[in-house]
């Protein structure tokens, strides 16, 4: 891996975003390679933008991109991908539920594979979220023929050129499934690697809200009707 973009979509993560950005910078420094941390603020109304801007003012490797209103997780992720300029892109979250030092596990497969997916070896979420995840994974496997353990795990290392062929059009939680399905359809090499998962200690998770689930259902339906959209 010659260079690395780390994309962090954030929404009201004032209590964790500083540690997330500094942790991302530490991973770039550890490797001694060119890199960047792209923080996409999806319309936060807490201190998140101020914190990120302050870090960016001190370190040119940090780029802050801001949506004026909340556009959705998929839109934030797509914006970060579009802004990325390095050989590989790490897609993760700023809620500190993943240990960025475990990037080494994914990186070990970066020569043989184009998309390296983390999967939560032991998921540290409430029961209802684990149940929702099982149902969603089953739906993705059945409808899209995407045979992965944990399609929504927010710890993915992707070769940047994949996104020259895979269009990210989802604005909501379907985005991870869209990326994996599109990469598989385009013939890219995909593997899975177990990673640790930790409880959320700050902020508020929105992935299990009825609105988010409804949007994901609509988006997977549209994708099934038009599976060429990611080519």
Main features:
231 residues, 38% helix, seven-stranded mixed sheet, 7 strands, Spore Coat Polysaccharide Biosynthesis Protein SpsA, Chain A, alpha/beta, globular
Care to describe what's here?
By secondary structure, the chain is an alpha/beta fold. The protein has a single domain (4-230), classed as Spore Coat Polysaccharide Biosynthesis Protein SpsA, Chain A (Alpha-Beta Complex). The protein has helices at 17-31, 48-58, 73-83, 103-107, 127-144, 175-185, 210-225; strands at residues 4-10, 35-42, 62-67, 88-92, 115-120, 155-159, 190-195.
What would you call the shape?
A: globular
- Integer average pLDDT: 87
Low-confidence stretches: none
Query: What is the highest CATH level, the class?
Result: Alpha Beta
How many beta-strand runs?
7
Q: How many DSSP helices?
A: 7
Oligomer: single chain
Domains, number:
1
CATH level 4 superfamily: Spore Coat Polysaccharide Biosynthesis Protein SpsA, Chain A
Summarize the biggest pleated sheet.
7 strands, mixed
Class derived from helix and strand content:
alpha/beta
Q: How are the strands ordered across the major sheet?
A: 3-2-1-4-6-5-7
Indicate the CATH architecture. Alpha-Beta Complex
Strand content: 15-25%
Helicity, in percent?
A: 25-40%
- The ordered H/E elements are EHEHEHEHEHEHEH
According to CATH, the fold-level topology is Spore Coat Polysaccharide Biosynthesis Protein SpsA, Chain A
The end-to-end distance, rounded to whole angstroms, is 25 Å
> Cα-atom Rg, whole angstroms?
16 Å
């Amino acid at each position: 891996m010659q260079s690395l973009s780390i994309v962090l979509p954030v929404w009201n993560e004032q209590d964790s975003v500083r540690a997330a950005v500094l942790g991302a910078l530490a991973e770039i420094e550890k490797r001694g390679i060119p890199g960047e941390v792209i923080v996409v603020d999806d319309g936060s109304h807490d201190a998140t933008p101020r914190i990120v801007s302050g870090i960016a003012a001190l370190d040119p490797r940090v780029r802050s991109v801001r949506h004026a209103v909340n556009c959705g997780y998929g839109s934030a992720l797509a914006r970060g991908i579009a802004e990325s300029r390095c050989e590989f892109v790490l897609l993760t979250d700023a809620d500190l539920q993943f240990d960025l030092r475990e990037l080494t596990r994914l990186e070990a497969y970066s020569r043989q594979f184009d998309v390296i997916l983390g999967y939560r070896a032991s998921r540290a979420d409430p029961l209802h979220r684990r149940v929702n995840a099982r149902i969603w994974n089953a739906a993705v496997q059945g409808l899209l023929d995407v045979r992965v353990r944990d399609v929504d795990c927010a710890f993915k290392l992707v070769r940047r050129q994949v996104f020259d062929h895979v269009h990210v059009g989802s604005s909501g939680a379907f985005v991870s499934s869209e990326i994996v399905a599109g990469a598989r359809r385009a013939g890219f090499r995909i593997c899975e690697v177990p990673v640790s998962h930790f409880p959320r200690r700050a902020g508020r998770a929105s992935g299990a809200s009825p609105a988010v689930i409804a949007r994901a259902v609509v988006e997977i339906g549209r994708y099934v009707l038009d599976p060429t959209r990611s080519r």
